[in-house]
């Protein structure tokens, strides 16, 4: 948990490194097993490749991580790396902020300097937790494996004066590990919430079922605990999962032996094994049994998100909400009444159960101030209620998607603070627990994972709605080389779209644990002030990223690594410009889904 926004050792100013294909491996180095990192001698005489391979050596199954790394270290220095076992294995994942710098001194010894950003600590249970160290640079030396003067052709290099911790380049994490999503129920077991794990590619495929069960037994990531529930204490897997006659069999010691809990676990496991089809049987020590005839059909019968319709695009034009018209996309209808559709600055509209629509509008108020107006009901929303207080500036509101007839809540940033609101515009401050002004907020599809921009940095927290009160758990800062962040939204289950600076305004996709970082738009041209994404998800799959944003009062639509301006002629029923005047610009684009 953060003490302050700057407390995780993340540099304030770094050049962006666009993650590529991973560490180089020399010709002839492909003889290592599936998903195994290169060996010490794979680089031959290429010192740069040797360094990259050394920063990949900790990949693979965690119980052998120290052994693989120590193969790169000179025998006389191997005791400098204190070895840990089992759950204590900790691999420090780092992002190189520059290429390694290798210099040769007068005695022929090579010195290596590796500037890094700390991303997090990868544990044996597949969780990439927040960083525990703050080093922004590592130094070590290289020597040849032969006697002085004999060269390195035969035996390559060894590391001397090694770092005292296991290091893994974030590129190697992507190359040698497969990310997997596991799902935990929220506190009242009404909605599944996604959590990310990493499985070494070196792990045999047939172990995936056992690993997924162990992940669920171990519980959620620390930052997510307030928003979800784990399995009952003392739940255990009895032996490994086995496949018999085409059916996977999982035997559990489940305290209480509750069949309903076993059925819920079956849904969790079906989604946590989203690439697996066919039958699966769960059996407890007391012989309670749940049989899933087909995992794919079970997922269809128990959708992870309550989505029934695809997204529709809207924008604010001349102070009113209008649908956007794009070829081959559904065109929506304005979800609020005409008498409420004026003086709008930005909006958030969501579908809810029972044909209900949730609407939250930021509107202009007297004296140049802004006010939140909210309502719910069948579209067009029949009653919109204004908040009693006004603010200098209100950010884009977000709804926490309710279940059934539960009271709907949302979150919004106003004058640097986070507020909870409901469908009658009652606003209550929500403590964030980390220093800095809050400037943006976004909620995942499950409604329990919250992304925040606090003090210009990216943070995550879990929202609990127990007792009708929205509260946030511990805040985790997410590493990214973007600085001066201005907007955020959820791009996929485990990734975020983030707007910030790389010495020029840009939008990047950033993983929830900071390991993934991919450029979407590298040069926006102005600071992004509004960002809206339809989050990709396994319930309603779309072929491409759907993202819109606003910068310098102009709205854009993202299309395949570039962006195009949203024009006034793409605004349905746009009012004509005044006589002799020019058409206005669409602003604050958003999705209804």
TrEMBL record:
Annotated Pfam families: Germane, Gmad1
Q: What is this protein called?
A: GerMN domain-containing protein
Where in the sequence does UniProt note compositional bias of the Low complexity kind? 20-33
- Disordered: annotated segments: 1-46
Q: Outline the extent of the Lipoprotein LpqB C-terminal domain.
A: 342-520
Q: Which residues form the GerMN domain?
A: 181-278
Q: Which InterPro entries match?
A: GerMN, LpqB_C
